[in-house]
Design goal:
By secondary structure, this protein is of the alpha/beta class. It has helices at about 1-25, 50-75, 80-85, 95-100, 155-170, 200-210, 225-235, 250-260, 265-270, 270-280, 290-300, 325, 340, 385-400, 420-445, 460-465, 500-515, 515-520, 535-545; strands at about 105-110, 125-135, 135-145, 175-180, 215-225, 235-240, 245-250, 285, 350-355, 360-370, 370-380, 405-410, 450, 455, 475, 480-485. It has 19 helices and 16 strands. Bound molecules: coenzyme A (COA). Coenzyme A (COA) binds near residues 83, 88, 184, 225 and 251.
Length: about 575
């Protein structure tokens, strides 16, 4: 079996190398050099058993990923979909996005947010967020899914919308809201209203973003009640769909309860009323299709100067992306050399390594991903003193040269405990070096992407640009483990002489469950799980998205557009 696999692998590599050589001969040299050294990505035969174990684990993780994605895509379920499409005559959220966005694939963010939370399952947190192109411009979108409890806002929906706004701010991307929301999910109102990062923050951000010259356009394509009504009313430009869109602080049932008066949603806050009388919206659209066309036209008035369309020329990696499944470690002990992963992610498997012989448990260097130059910082073991110093130096180089940084994170579950004074001294020195790296990472004035390919454990994860260090994007593979420490290392907390292991076992089980990538993604500790074989495409999209701000017309202005 293993011999077969080796033979297939070798044949595949030979064919790929031949095709690559032909391609290279044909390709014109683009804007970037293709002379970086080529990485050897062939998997050593002694590692085949680890590869096979990882592969089995990845297949199980991907099965779970696919099942969950299928469930999430059904939104609020069959009955809610029928109510939405047949009774309320509205388009489903993905149909809306198809009309709004250009005809190319978009980057969906955090589809598993809201999965299996203490207050239940909230498919995709009740709203889709992502980044797609409209008339060639990358835009963030936030689109309520009204099949999930009438598009009402759960605590996790607030978090998802705030994250979308933060992405728009950090990458200077305009934002389009498709609003179809009954406002707060009332049973959880205490977790939605008063605190700093609760619902009101969405509206605060709208004002701040406008002052930062980040345009926001909204479409009222359903009932927008209470909190749902502020999003379009605070956007810079708003479109409403006739007979489908309505906007009010309290809907007809509340009016009836308070005044006894029967009033239709149309008369209370429909499209004609708001476009003719209140001025809460700016454009009347006779259908949903007309509304999305109107948004596309609004985008064309933003005065963005994008570079002329041209396709970047680049080489594919020499090694198959499918093999990343066998390289994605099922646990820290199953980690293979990071360069095997790099050789399957970067253009032409070419890598200009920095300080190759020093601090080798961290690999640093330059490469291209789908034609974009990046600095790569990748764990290849524990973040030692030397590795941390090398990391600090390299991150500063990238910042100095304005090169985005890609962190490939696979941090160790725990560091060995010191057993002597000299070891304790070494630990202190390492701590100091890691602190330097944290400073360098936090202050590097360049876009950053973090991809967790294995472990995201404890303090080393900060230096590797974990969530709290504000990378522009953070994704993880489905095999990833995210926790303060590995469950296996909890036994060191067992008191000597204490034979009752029940509590400890319970804690270990809990930690193990809470370390899964799905647990993390459900809580929005990341921007989504991506499959190893799709990583290159996602990273390429992110690098292209982050580059767009270079081409916008930005002038200093510190006041927002105020609706009058
Ligand atoms: N909080 C909690 N659940 C809500 C809700 C809210 N604010 N608004 C609606 N729901 C639930 C409904 O109970 C229903 O649940 P079910 O599917 O388990 O029966 C589901 O969302 C869909 O509501 P429904 O009224 O059947 O669908 P619809 O498409 O006809 O209308 C709304 C959707 C949002 C327009 C309508 O439900 C509504 O006006 N809700 C009240 C909104 C409101 O007053 N919000 C104030 C927030 S401060």
């Amino acid at each position: 079996m293993q011999t077969m696999w080796t033979l297939q692998n070798s044949l595949c590599q030979i064919m790929k190398k031949t095709v690559h050589t032909l391609k290279c001969k044909k390709a014109r040299y683009g804007q970037y050099t293709k002379t970086y050294p080529v990485l050897d990505g062939s998997i050593p035969s002694v590692c085949e058993h680890v590869f096979e174990e990882n592969l089995r684990n990845s297949e199980a993780c991907i099965k779970r990923y696919s099942e969950l994605l299928c469930k999430v895509r059904k939104g609020g379920g069959e009955n809610a979909i029928l109510r939405h499409t047949q009774r309320n005559k509205k388009l489903l959220v993905r149909e809306r996005l198809r009309m709004l966005l250009d005809d190319e694939s978009f980057l969906e963010l955090s589809p598993f947010a809201g999965f299996d939370l203490p207050y239940g399952d909230v498919p995709a947190a009740g709203c889709l967020t992502g980044i797609g192109k409209i008339c060639g411009v990358w835009c963030v979108f936030v689109a309520n899914d009204a099949t999930v409890k009438g598009g009402t806002i759960y605590p996790i929906s607030v978090k998802k919308q705030l994250r979308a706004q933060q992405i728009a701010i950090q990458n200077r991307l305009l934002l389009v809201y498709l609003v179809d929301s009954g406002g707060a999910f009332l049973p959880l109102q205490a977790e939605l209203f008063p605190d700093q990062s609760h619902g009101g923050r969405i509206f605060y951000n709208e004002a701040i973003m406008s002052a930062m010259k980040i345009p926001q356009v909204a479409v009222v394509c359903g009932s927008c009640t209470a909190g749902g009504a502020y999003v379009p009313t605070m956007a810079e430009e708003t479109v409403i769909v006739d007979k489908i869109g309505s906007l009010f602080l309290a809907g007809p049932p509340l009016v009836k309860a308070a005044t006894g008066e029967d009033i239709s949603p149309e008369d209370l806050g429909g499209a004609r009323m708001h476009s003719k009388v209140s001025g809460c919206v700016d454009h009347f659209a006779s259908s949903e299709k007309a509304a999305y066309e109107c948004v596309r036209n609004i985008i064309l008035t933003l005065n963005y100067e994008l570079p002329p369309e041209k396709t970047l020329e680049y080489d594919d990696p020499l090694y198959s992306a499918e093999e990343l499944l066998g390289l994605a470690p099922q646990g820290y002990r199953y980690t293979l050399n990071i360069k095997l992963i790099l050789s399957r992610l970067v253009d032409g498997s070419r890598f200009q390594e920095f300080k190759a012989e020093y601090g080798t448990t961290l690999v640093t260097g330059f490469a291209h991903v789908e034609g974009h130059l990046v600095g790569i910082v990748a764990n290849n073991g524990e973040l030692t003193h030397d590795a941390s110093l090398k990391g600090s130096h390299f991150v500063q180089l990238c910042s100095q040269r304005s090169i985005p940084i890609l962190f490939l994170q696979n941090t160790a579950p725990h560091a060995a405990e010191p057993t002597s004074l000299s070891q304790a001294e070494a630990h202190t020195n390492r701590l100091k070096a890691q602190a330097s790296m944290m400073v360098a990472v936090a202050c590097a004035a360049v876009p950053k992407i973090t991809l967790i390919i294995g472990g995201c454990y404890g303090n080393e994860s900060y230096a590797m640009c974990g969530r709290s260090f504000d990378p522009n994007f953070l994704f993880l593979w489905p095999n990833a483990r995210v926790a303060l420490m590995d469950a296996r290392h909890m036994s060191m907390f067992q008191h000597a002489g204490n034979d009752d292991c029940t509590e400890l076992n319970h804690l270990k089980e809990k930690l193990d469950q809470e370390s899964s990538a799905f647990y993390s993604s459900a809580r929005l500790w990341d921007d989504g799980i991506i499959l190893p074989q799709n990583s290159r495409k996602v990273l390429g999209q992110c690098l292209s998205i982050m580059k767009q701000q270079k081409y916008q017309i930005v002038s200093l202005q510190h006041y927002p557009v105020i609706r009058l």
